[in-house]
Amino acid sequence: MNKLTLSIASLLVATLSTTSVYALDANTAAKVNGKKISETQYQNHLKLLTSQTPKGQQAPNNRQQILNDLINREILLQEAKKLKLDKNKKVLAQIEQTKANIMIQALLAQSPIAKPITEKELKDVYNQQVAAVDPKEFKARHILVKDEAKAKELIKKLNDGANFEELAKTESTGPSGKDGGDLGWFSAAQMVPEFSKAASAMKKGTHSQTPVKTRFGFHIIKLEDSRKREAPKFEDVKEQIRPLVQNKRVQDYIVKLRSKAKIEIK
Fold first, then answer.
1. If residue 37 lies in a helix (H) or strand (E), which one and from where to where?
2. How many helices (H) and strands (E) does the chain have?
3. 55-105: per-residue pLDDT in tens?
4. Are residues 199 and 245 in the same domain?
5. DSSP for 64-117, written as a single string
6. Number of domains forming the structure of the chain
7. Share of the chain above pLDDT 90, in %
8. C-alpha to C-alpha distance for 72 and 202, rounded to whole angstroms
9. pLDDT of residue 26
10. Cα of 145 vs its chain's centroid, Å
């Protein structure tokens, strides 16, 4: 760990904790220009470093290194005060913002939203997510051209027996043209609405009889197949749903507080 690498948040926590520590704990771990660093402050900093250690890595436990970290903080803090940065408007604004963030996190940590998430909550959100997603997928080819007249001309050729794949290779301006217009499998959400709407209305093995206009140009679509996509199992995605439940709790809590607040917007 680089002892001179300090985040504003951790610096604020360490600084705020010194305010009352000296009055409560007479034990002194170190001094910097006469300013005490208490044993309690050392223990608090050790806990902070331990909580910030990534899983799988050993938490810092060398007392001298940790004390040096605190000493470096105090030296930097004293220098900042010497330069009157504690009076600087921008610095004060940043400190207030950080204090506000800490207060909000403390509030959320002790509010009802901090209680353990239940299996029912996870399943409810899972069912909502599954219901909101169209399970149908399509396998299709297309020919993309710039103008409608050209698209109508190609539709006539297809109706007269022209091979769709070969026509796509020679006429399509889209990147899939070289592959005979093959788009593979896709869901409705993966395509622009006009394209998906047209594909979903078609029968397997048919091509569109009127050009489908999108922002890319005019399409002739051939629907080769369709299928119903199976939803992922609840147990496989349960942990991915957990943040969604937590976020919903936070949003519901904010809505509740807003309903009681007097809000004026100019």
1. strand 35-38
2. 9, 6
3. 888 888 889 999 999 999 999 999 999 999 999 999 999 999 999 999 999
4. no
5. HHHHHHHHHHHHHHHHHHHTTGGG-HHHHHHHHHHHHHHHHHHHHHHSGGGSPP
6. 3
7. 74
8. 71
9. 57
10. 37
